[in-house]
Amino acid sequence: MRTIVKYAAAAAAAAAALATAAAPATAQGSTLTVLSEGHVDAFGIAYEDGALDLHVHDEENDAEHAPSDVLLAVNREAKTTAPAGYDFLDDGDADVWILPDTHVEGLLFPGWATEEIAPGDFADDTLTITVHDAWGDVDLYTVDDLGDPTVLFDSDQGPGSWDVTAGGHGHLNWAFGEAGLYKLTVEAEGELAATGETVSTGEVDYWFWVEK
Questions:
Q1: Burial class of residue 98 (count of CB atoms within 10 Å of its CB; 0-12, 13-18, 19+)
Q2: What's the Cα-to-Cα distance from 176 to each of 2, 76, 134, 179, rounded to whole Å?
Q3: Which strand (E) or helix (H) includes residue 11?
Q4: Euclidean distance between the first and final Cα of the chain, in Å?
Q5: DSSP string computed for 52-115
Q6: Mean pLDDT by 10-residue block, N- to C-terminus, for the chain (212 residues)?
């Protein structure tokens, strides 16, 4: 879903933060596209002309955006309580906003995608996504069939990385500890099969707005 009235202030705040953080010139002074529900490849990875790229693929509108041009919105309907046993989500306040790894009507359904990576380009057909840091309390995690979580990134613990397979696609759970504006700094990299050279997207900033 594109920008709507209730996110105007959030988009303005994010745009101001982008400028303050010395974001790419293309993002400064521009109108951010707000994505607030539906399927989105937040960490879309492509390899073209010798360069590795991170982008946001809006599956609902079949559009790609630079991360600096997008505000990913977490609607208030995502607000819940931390599940029992998920101690990494509970910092003394049981409220948490979660975008789950399954589609829920009215919420953003963000994941990762390497469908633009050709098999054989990278060693073992593997790339690595790293979240270096985040503004605020953020946890990214998966849950197995028994309900046991594996934490991929915990903002209290520092950088977190996980491997993804070329030509693949997946989802994870995104948890935010409070309402407000967040920035996640993300990098994707991989070793080229032909040369052994490691190529990287460099550090790329993503912006999230969590609705109170």
A1: buried
A2: 22, 11, 11, 8
A3: helix 8-20
A4: 19
A5: EEEEEEETTTTEEE-GGGEEEEE-GGGEEEPPTT-GGG-SS--EEEEE-SS--TTSEEEEEEEE
A6: 50 56 42 95 97 97 97 97 89 85 97 97 98 97 95 97 98 97 98 98 98 95
